[in-house]
Amino acid sequence: MSQYEHALASPFSPWCLGAPLYMPAHRLDLMDIANGEKLPSLRAMIFCTEDAVAKQELDSSLRHLALCLQGFRETPQRLRFIRTRNPDILARLLDLPGIEKIDGFVLPKFNHAVFHAYFDQLQGTTFKIMPTLETQDVFDLGAMRELRQGLSQEDILQRILMLRIGGNDLMNLLGLRRPRGFTLYETPLGQVLAHLVTIFKPYGFALSAPVFEYLDDHATLQKEIALDLAYGLTGKTAIHPDQVPMIEFAYAVDKADYDMALSLVKSDAPAVFRMHNAMCEVATHQQWSQTILNRQACFGVKMFRPLEVFAESSV
Q: What's the pTM?
């Protein structure tokens, strides 16, 4: 790895998340997964205390999570997050012995109404945060711009790893469910995703790609990941281990893109040049180049790999 690639591949680069796996906090093998004894290739995981846990199971799930925390070992190559249920549950989580073994928190249903209830508790901590955009406010461009201003405060911005997009929650607000064979970009949510990209990404925020809820439609998943990347989204959450290698393989970069990115960041690169039958312009392709180098540092250069190699994983 070259010097600039090493610098780009920081431990908390959003690309290093790969495809985080969501799992309920009461999952019996939670500690084995957290420590890498099970699903050892997993880069990131999110233990959920919200939608994946029924209300009557919440207290037992928190007790289970508290017990598992005691057995968590240091795993620098595995990022571990907890999805809180609400600000009150965050308070309970922050009081748990061993909570410092968690890298950060996913904040669901995030908007101005819960802004201070969450961030007031997180002051003075080093946890990385991933607020999730999945309420009615997402459909209000003015509300999203106002939220961006609040999140842009220096002490808050530095702890935000990325903003997650709750695709299923947003579809639910529309009274819809993604049809089989359709990407989210072919639903009314496509326009919403485009708006979120243009509102947040120019101001330094990374945005996640929503989950794909069908486990038997690899072709549409591949199509959606390609569109995720075209929209500048990363960190697509996996809902099953089988999805992880497919998502992360797609995050590897094409050889031609990698060649062009390397040429664009050279100190002696001409202002404009032709490469792989594409125009390369240093002034306008710098951020794209940095993204390609980040992806390459985390996932390498893509080699042809037929779909059949994605074998079923054991849960």
A: 0.90
